[in-house]
Design goal:
alpha/beta, Rossmann fold, six-stranded parallel sheet
Length: 331
Amino acid sequence: MTKSNKILAINFGGIGDEIFFLPTLISLKKEFPDSHITLALEPRSKGIKALTDTIDDLILVDVKGKNKYLEMLKLIISARKGHFDMVISSGGNKFISILLFLTGIKKRYGYYTGKLSSMLLTHAQPLNKNQYACSMYHDLIRTITSHNTDLPQIKVEKREIIANSVLIHPGVSKMSVMKNCIKTVPPKTWAKVIDLLVAEGKKVMLTGGPDDQDCIKEILENVRTQNFENLYGATKNLNELAQLISSADKFLCSDSAPLHIAVALGVKTYPIFGPTNDKTLIPQTPQVVPIKANDNCELKPCLWAKRMTTCEKLDCLKITPSMIAETIKNY
């Protein structure tokens, strides 16, 4: 393939989605070492740049705002002014291939969404959602490079690992809660887990982000032991959170962005999974141990695949504190 100096990558979503997209960008950088990679993404996910040196520039596109069509027009204008050699975009919307065509960029790569995508794209890659999300995104560049980056990689200043420690990050994004997408166990369960882990002799640390204030408050109201370290508010950004996670012997969390940061750091991670699909959200390795209820729900995993909100029963999240603590102890 000819040399590509300027690459535009487009990937809308949350921080987790941007972490999933990192292996694709890393492989592109390996194929084109002198390239300049610009990532177009949502403003809420701009913190990804602090976790990697693969991304050179950002274009912020508020696709969920009131003026989303104006934002897309601005993206097209920026793409044309940028004189890019190549554009790669995720997303299964039929509009994506039209968007890429309008950028005027010669080489265009996206997913196959019908005959039009085959006409407008240099290569339209079949979309396979039944695999780890990193692999799904990486499929976009299978015809561009033979490099294969299996897992996300982030670059932060790693701290010394604290022996016998368990770092707990219980929260999920407020956006998920507002959309009635319940993906984790209640605060009282987290509080009991802390009690059990401390009783087992673990050095427990509790952390969370701005969205987790109510959750952390309720945990602190219900936890009985005082022999743990409350680090809520100690990290000011994603980079500092990643540094903290790097110090943990084990990391217990919900299905949220910190999970994917821990995976990228290679920390032994125990994510709580309920209505979402662990097969597509975590790598199938011993380093990541999903904790799931034995609910035998025929619809599980349902969230995103079969419904856009969680059900009222939430049997898939009836996970006991003892089950969580025992999993961390034994695996």
